[in-house]
Amino acid sequence: MNSQTPKEHLQSIVLDSILFGTANALDYLNLGGQVMMDEIGQGILEYCFKKGFIERSGDLEQLAGKVGSFFADNGYVGGVQVAHDGELLVITLIDWQYLGLMNKLRKKEHYLLACPLCIADNALFRSNGLYGQIVYEELTPAGNYLKKLKIIPGNAMSPPEALTPPKLTNLNQAKYDGTVNVGAPAFEAVEYGLARGFDHLGAQAQALLDNVGHGILEFLKTEAQLTLTGDLMKDLQGVSSFFKSRGLAADIQFALSSPIATTKFRNYLYQPVLRTLIEEDLQLTCCPFTLAEKALFRDAGWAVGESHWTLGDRDAQLNMRLTKIEEEFDEDKIGAFMG
Question: Is 0.70 topped by the overall pTM?
Fold first, then answer.
């Protein structure tokens, strides 16, 4: 991986958990799910432009190269090589962090492409009335991923011709490694893209985000051997300890005081995204910990209602109002969680 990863970083499993959860939640949309993914890619680009991570360019190929360089500088890919084979565009991704995650998704027959670099490039193509359809792919002897794209007309909301790519026979050689350091700028860009993408879904967005939260928990159980006991407080402690140890925040503390659940973050890498979303009056947030936290509340029989964020310089506090699902609210029951 690139040795110039920014000083502020987190482990890739934090980012991969929400990419897995998102691909898992959107899979039922089939071809339309890839359009949604590419909307997330558009949000990634918007964040990179507004924060100065990537300079705009009127040259499509040059801009795509800048996107590749951004993710390389942030440790998500070792390098990107672009060539041409007749009318086909040939792209080689060296030391591609997404490869192990793609293997896991395809084993579940989930073929949505959730790689942040790829969906940002897809958004570039779509904004220019084009779409890159994969017609060939392989894992090279050096362990790098090569794909050939047929560039076809496609507007911003048109689905690809097909979702299932050509069979990559040796993909099982790709082993998952969630310990790679990914720079905070890449994490921020992806998180902003997720919020903007889900915002396009309107009323159904929150239900899908609930599914994303459960997908995050599923991923952590299989890839981080996280054990969930069914005891709400113990499970919250386990999930918060995991995300803290992987770099999402220097500290995560939570408390329940009927009927409010409070979560406090110190030196929170999601905070810059959160501040931007609040400034733009976007209500949806996609922090992987808070989505997992809400999923745990739901599994324990509690729905999260009104939520309010308070921001410091690098810290944040989230207050959430809880209500019992499909039952009359009982303060004594929720107070019992406080032990």
Answer: yes
